[in-house]
Design brief:
Elements lengths: L1 H19 L2 H4 L1 E3 L15 E4 L3 H10 L2 E11 L5 H9 L4 E8 L8 H10 L7 H9 L3 E10 L7 E9 L6 E12 L4 H4 L7 E5 L2 E2 L3 H10 L4 E8 L2 E8 L5
Length: about 250
């Protein structure tokens, strides 16, 4: 019985240590060095648990949010409230939490081991079996943290357009920037741009690198600019009335 009580105390002690460590905070990685955060001094941070990470990312971008950073780790049962706790600490407006089984096998829990020992009259629990139950990760966790942005000057999220040569396996960069998402009610959305379009020019300036777009948009903010783009192989032109920012 003393061994059983000792094992129970060990479990309780380790639980307190585990609870004191926020794994979402420990494994957080910022997306960039811009110290992105909510525009609100004290945001009413929201938490959502989901299963569709890629679709959620696009939806968040379209709704005017930008990614602050993310947390990823393997562990046993971890409360989603800990993700919310960290999200509030870094002043995120929204945190999205994802959880899935790390393996098809479910390890025997420590409490089950204690119960088995109790049934046997407080018999000794195999140390290797107990360590295995404690150490084996059960789930994979991922959380993304988002900040609501001010009204954009243009309102598109883009990536460099590239393809891979099947014979040489080399990445070949192509002309243009692919639109990943268009922010709702933005100048880009009002101009008719949609996800998947390929931007070629803005105000007669060719677009070949993602870092070109932001300085160019700032240069022409408040003005009506022509945007040359491609959709399904067809070249098109749209006019966007850019927002301005003081």
């Amino acid at each position: 019985m003393k061994k059983l009580l000792g094992l129970l105390l060990l479990l309780v002690s380790s639980a307190y240590i585990y609870a004191a460590e926020n794994l979402y905070e420990k494994n957080y990685k910022a997306q960039n060095t811009a110290n992105l955060a909510s525009l609100q001094a004290n945001p009413d941070t929201k938490i959502f648990v989901s299963k569709h990470k890629d679709e959620d990312n696009i939806s968040m971008l379209e709704n005017g949010y930008d990614l602050m950073g993310s947390s990823g780790f393997d562990a046993g049962n971890v409360l989603p409230e800990l993700a919310l706790q960290h999200a509030k600490a870094i002043k995120a407006d929204t945190v999205l939490v994802y959880k899935k089984y790390g393996s098809a096998q479910t390890p025997i829990s420590s409490m089950q081991l204690i119960k088995e020992a109790a049934k046997k009259g407080g018999g000794e629990v195999d140390a290797k079996e107990f360590a295995s139950a404690e150490d084996a990760p059960q789930y994979k966790y991922y959380a993304s943290y988002w900040a609501k942005m001010s009204a954009p000057l243009l309102g598109v999220h883009i990536i460099k357009l590239a393809t891979r040569d099947e014979e040489t396996d080399k990445v070949i960069e192509k002309i243009g920037l692919k639109v990943l998402a268009v922010i709702k009610d933005s100048p880009a959305a009002k101009a008719g741009l949609v996800r998947g379009d390929i931007l070629h020019k803005l105000a007669e300036t060719a677009l070949n690198k993602p870092e070109q777009l932001s300085p160019l948009v700032r240069k022409f903010q408040g003005q009506n600019v022509a945007i040359e783009y491609e959709r399904e192989g067809q070249k098109r032109v749209a006019n966007a009335q850019l927002n301005s920012r003081n």
